User: Which sequence fits this backbone?
C-alpha cells in the first residue's frame, strides 16, 4: 500500500494518504484513505464524486476547501473513490455498460472493505451530484452497511434535458468543454447550470477565482485527457426521467444540502425530497449556491452544519 504524508498549514496538521486495494466487477478501483492524527477508527466517510468527475474534482486542494481534509481534521477517516471507469480506476472495455447500479456496487464494496479494515458496524457516505444517486442506491441495496447519508446538490428526475436514445453511443468516453465545466460555478447574470456565453465573468461574491482556476486546472488535467464513461449519461439523460435518489426508499438518516441557484434541480423538487426522508434527517439551503456548493466561499458553513449533524 502506498502511503504519503502531507502537512497542511491551513488545517495546521498532517494528513496521511494511504492507497487501499479494492476490486469490483473484475476491475481495479482507485480507493484511498485520508486521515489525520485525530481520526478515529469508528468514524469513516466515503466521498463519492459526480458524473463528469472523479475524486480529484470532488476534493479540490485549494486553501481550506478540501472536503476530505475538513472531515479528517474533525476525527474522521475520509475515503476517496474513483467509481468504475473514472479517474485512476481501471477502464472498462465497454464504458457504456457502466451505470448508476454498477457505481452503487462500487460503493458497497468500499463500505465492506472499510468494515473489514476496522471491524466497525457501518459507515457514512457523502455524495455530490450523481454521487447522490449512486450513494442513495447503494444504501437501498445494502442498508445495513450505512449509518448516515449526505446528499450534496442532489439530482432530481427533471434535472437533465431529455435526449434521444443512443445519443452517447458514438462517443463511449465523452468530453466536457470549458463552458460545460464552468456552469457548475456562479456566473454573473447567468442562472446556475446554464452553459455561459463566450464572454462571461464568474461571480466573485460567491466563488474565489483561485478556486475556479484550480478546479478547471484539475479537470483538464485529470478528466479531459481520459474523458468520462458515457454509460451513466445515456442512462440518466435519455428515455423516461428517473428519480435515482428515491428519498422515500432511503432508510438511514440523510442530510440534503443544496443551492437555490442550481440548474440541476429546483428548490421545489428538493423540498419534496426532504419531506420524504426518514426521521433524524436534516437539510441546509445555501442561498445563491449553484451546483458546486462545496467550492462556494461559504463552504465552511456547509461542512460545519454537516459535521454537527453527523456527530448527533
Assistant:
Amino acid at each position: 500500500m502506498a502511503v504519503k504524508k502531507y502537512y497542511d498549514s491551513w488545517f495546521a496538521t498532517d494528513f496521511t494518504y494511504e492507497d487501499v486495494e479494492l476490486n469490483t466487477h473484475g476491475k481495479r478501483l482507485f480507493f484511498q484513505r485520508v486521515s489525520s492524527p485525530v481520526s478515529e477508527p469508528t468514524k469513516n466517510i466515503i466521498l463519492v464524486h459526480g458524473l463528469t468527475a472523479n475524486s480529484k474534482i470532488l476534493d479540490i486542494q485549494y486553501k481550506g476547501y478540501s472536503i476530505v481534509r475538513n472531515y479528517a481534521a474533525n476525527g474522521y477517516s475520509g475515503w476517496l473513490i474513483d467509481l468504475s471507469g473514472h479517474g485512476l480506476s481501471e477502464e472498462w472495455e465497454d464504458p457504456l455498460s457502466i451505470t448508476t447500479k454498477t457505481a452503487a456496487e462500487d460503493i458497497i464494496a468500499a463500505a465492506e472493505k472499510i468494515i473489514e479494515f476496522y471491524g466497525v458496524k457501518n459507515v457514512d457516505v457523502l455524495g455530490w451530484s450523481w454521487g447522490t444517486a449512486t450513494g442513495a442506491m447503494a444504501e437501498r441495496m445494502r442498508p445495513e452497511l450505512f449509518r448516515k447519508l449526505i446528499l450534496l446538490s442532489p439530482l432530481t428526475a427533471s434535472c437533465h434535458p431529455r435526449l434521444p436514445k443512443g445519443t452517447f453511443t458514438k462517443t463511449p468516453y465523452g468530453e466536457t468543454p470549458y463552458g460545460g465545466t464552468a456552469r457548475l460555478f456562479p456566473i454573473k447574470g447567468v442562472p446556475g447550470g446554464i452553459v455561459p456565453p463566450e464572454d462571461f465573468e464568474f461571480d466573485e461574491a460567491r466563488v474565489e477565482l483561485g478556486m475556479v482556476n484550480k478546479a478547471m486546472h484539475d479537470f483538464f488535467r485529470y478528466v479531459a485527457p481520459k474523458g468520462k464513461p458515457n454509460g451513466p449519461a445515456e442512462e440518466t439523460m435519455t428515455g423516461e426521467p428517473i428519480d435515482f435518489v428515491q428519498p422515500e426508499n432511503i432508510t438511514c438518516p440523510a442530510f440534503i444540502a443544496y443551492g437555490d441557484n442550481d440548474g440541476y434541480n429546483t428548490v421545489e423538487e428538493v423540498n419534496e425530497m426532504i419531506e420524504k426522508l426518514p426521521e433524524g434527517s436534516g437539510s441546509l439551503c445555501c442561498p445563491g449556491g449553484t451546483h458546486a456548493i462545496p467550492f462556494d466561499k461559504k463552504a465552511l458553513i456547509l461542512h460545519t452544519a454537516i459535521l454537527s449533524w453527523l456527530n448527533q
